[in-house]
Design a protein that fits this description.
mainly alpha, two-stranded antiparallel sheet, about 45% helix, globular
């Protein structure tokens, strides 16, 4: 099985979760996934380098390389669809198997973004979500976006570490857990001594 580039894997995963995405939403979903990854993992998922393009955050060269890799490799189809007088593009995953190299937290973030914003129109997605992210606030067209601003938005207000939470879930599902009574008794014993 041919291994896709990291960026192509991300786009393919997003269209697998949300088939029928157009180019704008696909690019914005990748950006939002990187925002969430910066927030909860302190690092991006992709290798995109976003600049404030005239239509929002975008890495034109890397996006089209990844998109072309998917289409030419027959991992996705791209169909022209009419949107009034304009041509739009719609992506569908093919049945060709893909070997993803995401960890569980990365896959959860990608799935969360695709499922959460699937019903948003491209305009609503940009206006209400994308343009409200910290890297976009105060940015100027043509500038590289400061993705590290997402670190100021860390998920600590929720009081959990995403990777530890997912690891705990996996352990419980695999039958590796301690009864609550046993854990509470141990904590009480520590505090008494």
């Amino acid at each position: 099985m041919t291994q896709l580039s990291r960026n192509a894997q991300i786009l393919r995963y997003l269209i697998q979760v949300a088939p029928g995405l157009g180019r704008i939403k696909l690019a914005k979903f990748a950006y939002l996934a990187d925002c969430e990854a910066h927030r909860y993992l302190s690092r991006p998922i992709s290798e995109f380098r976003y600049t404030y393009d005239r239509h929002g955050p975008f890495d034109r060269r890397r996006f089209y390389l990844a998109k072309d890799e998917l289409v030419k490799g027959e991992y996705a189809t791209e169909t022209v669809v009419k949107a009034g007088p304009y041509d739009g593009y719609e992506f569908q995953p093919t049945t060709k198997p893909v070997e993803y190299d995401f960890d569980q937290a990365e896959a959860e973030i990608l799935q969360y973004v695709a499922e959460t914003y699937l019903t948003h129109t491209a305009v609503r997605l940009c206006d209400e979500v994308v343009y409200q992210t910290p890297p976009m606030k105060g940015a100027k067209v043509g500038e590289k976006l400061p993705m590290e601003k997402m670190h100021e938005e860390k998920g600590t207000e929720l009081g959990f570490n995403l990777e530890r939470l997912l690891a705990g879930e996996a352990s419980a599902e695999a039958g590796r857990f301690r009864p609550l009574k046993e854990a509470v008794d141990e904590l009480r014993a520590r505090h008494r001594s």
